[in-house]
Design a protein that fits this description.
The protein is α/β, with parallel strands linked by helices. The protein is built from 12 helices and 25 strands. Strands 7-6-5-2-1-8-21 form a 7-stranded mixed β-sheet. A 5-stranded parallel β-sheet has the order 10-17-11-12-13. Strand 19 (280-281) and strand 20 form a beta hairpin. Helix 1 runs parallel beside helix 8 (323-341) and helix 4 (133-152) runs antiparallel to helix 5. Keywords: FAD, Flavoprotein, NAD, Oxidoreductase. Residues 5-330 form the FAD/NAD(P)-binding domain. Belongs to the NADH dehydrogenase family. This is Oxidoreductase.
């Protein structure tokens, strides 16, 4: 009898934790496990701003999936672009561009999220995101190159546009990105004697009326004060009206000379969700507390792409798309798949939120572990301690700790690799959101397989 086929889509926190639990709990002959991912590493997303700032190396936050001692999962290098739950086939586009039709008995949908964008003129062509390792490395190169080019230029207008940086999004990603990158540009001024410190301008804008409202008024205000003290201009209730090559227009009418627009204004569930033609909640797949997709046999979903009921908060609440929940949903879902294989009852996911941490670089941070409000060095100790403990392997922990210590002792460096130096990269170059099929296209594709078969 053939072994049941378990297909996990996505190597984020949820997908990887699910795979690792499956490898530990299932006997080698009990099931066949496959993982679909463009890259054979798990990215520790919350530390990307520190990669962009050069505090951490890219390798230190990318944990190899092939280092596991229990590794027996087949890794398929590509991305899922469509799922036909009736035919039980997942359509995969491999990194070579070829299409693979992968059959499954159980599928775990953990494709994560993509940067949420809006119909703003010029946004997709001129904005950069902070969602992938490549984007973080590119932004670091780009920011340093703006300093180099401004230093080399004698044109005051060009200098003004190159030394103006705009970050959109007052959540954790945007706030940490603005804080970490502003700090690196201020430190770099010692190496650029031709640049006037007053010319470097950082703007953080958000359409919301408060900065990081999840932290509460007190800590949100504390974070705002840290940013303003550093010289970052924070504008709330404002967004981008138009983005150009060398200028940005705000919705309040201001026009800034600017060649760096970093867009971190929220996330949306992976477009893969739309290929199933299933019920959604604000764009995320609606699932049961056991993380099964109703009426779809053998389909499970979790993480950013799924609206998982938050039983700890009560009826009508859903788990927020955070690493904290994804890392715990993965093992629980794996246990439910094992239970399904062994004809045992499935159990619901329940987790009480442990709090929030925001590292603002240097000695600045704000944290709210278990509802306790912290700021400054104690908050940073909690923030970095939490991130360090959440890393999966001792190798990753050693690399991150070594990077932190080296940066504290030796200071920042301003090396750029020249990544895509001749071709400006934008959101469209890093997140392939136009590669997905529609539900009708998926059904037509799988039907043609049946005809050919």
């Amino acid at each position: 009898m053939a072994r049941p086929r378990i297909l996990v889509v996505g190597a984020g926190f949820a997908g990887v934790e699910c795979v690792r639990r499956l490898e530990r709990r299932l006997q080698p002959g009990e099931a066949e496990i496959s993982l679909v991912t463009p890259f054979s590493y798990q990215l520790y997303l919350p530390l990307l701003p520190q990669v962009a700032a050069g505090v951490l190396t890219p390798q230190s936050v990318a944990v190899s999936l092939r280092r596991s001692a229990k590794h027996r999962t087949r890794i398929i290098p590509g991305g899922a672009i469509g799922v036909d739950p009736k035919a039980k086939i997942c359509v995969i586009r491999k990194i070579t561009g070829e299409t693979l039709d992968q059959p499954y008995d159980y599928i775990v949908l953990a494709p994560g999220s993509v940067t949420r964008t809006f119909d703003i003129p010029g946004l997709l062509d001129h904005a950069r995101g902070m969602k992938t390792l490549a984007e973080a490395a590119y932004i670091r190169d780009h920011v340093i190159s703006q300093l180099d080019l401004a230093d080399a230029s004698d044109d005051e207008d060009e200098r003004a546009s190159r030394l103006c940086f705009v970050v959109v999004g007052g959540g954790y990603a945007g706030t940490e990105t603005a804080a970490c990158l502003q700090r690196i540009t201020q430190t770099a001024l010692k190496r650029y004697p031709r640049l006037d410190p007053r010319q470097i301008k950082w703007h953080l804008i958000d359409i919301a009326p408060k900065l990081m409202p999840e932290l509460g008024d007190k800590l949100g205000k504390a974070a705002l004060e840290v940013l303003q003290k550093r010289g970052i201009e924070v504008s709330l209730g404002v967004s981008v009206a138009e983005a150009g090559v060398d200028k940005v227009t705000f919705t309040d009418g201001r026009v800034l000379p600017c060649r760096t627009l970093i867009w971190t204004a929220g996330v949306a569930a992976s477009p893969l969700v739309g290929t199933l033609d299933a019920e959604t909640e604000r764009g995320r797949l609606l699932v049961t507390p056991e993380m099964t997709v109703p009426d779809l046999d053998g389909v499970f979903a979790l993480g950013d792409a799924a609206a998982v009921p938050d039983l700890a908060k009560g009826e009508g609440a859903f788990c927020p798309p955070t690493a904290q929940h994804a890392m715990r949903q993965g093992p629980k879902l794996a246990d439910n798949i094992v239970a399904a294989l062994r004809n045992q009852p499935l159990k619901p996911y329940v987790h009480k939120d442990l709090g929030l941490v925001v590292d603002l670089g240097g000695h600045d941070a704000v944290s709210k572990p278990l509802g306790i409000e912290l700021r400054g060095l104690p908050a940073q100790a909690v923030a970095r301690g939490y991130h360090w403990s959440a890393l999966r392997t001792n190798v990753a922990k050693t690399r991150v700790l070594t990077n932190w210590m080296l940066n504290a002792l030796a200071g920042d460096d301003f090396v750029r690799t020249g990544f895509q130096a001749q071709k400006p990269a934008t959101l469209k170059d890093f997140e392939y959101t136009d590669a997905y099929m529609t539900p009708d296209q998926v059904r037509a594709h799988t039907a043609s397989l049946t005809v050919r078969g």
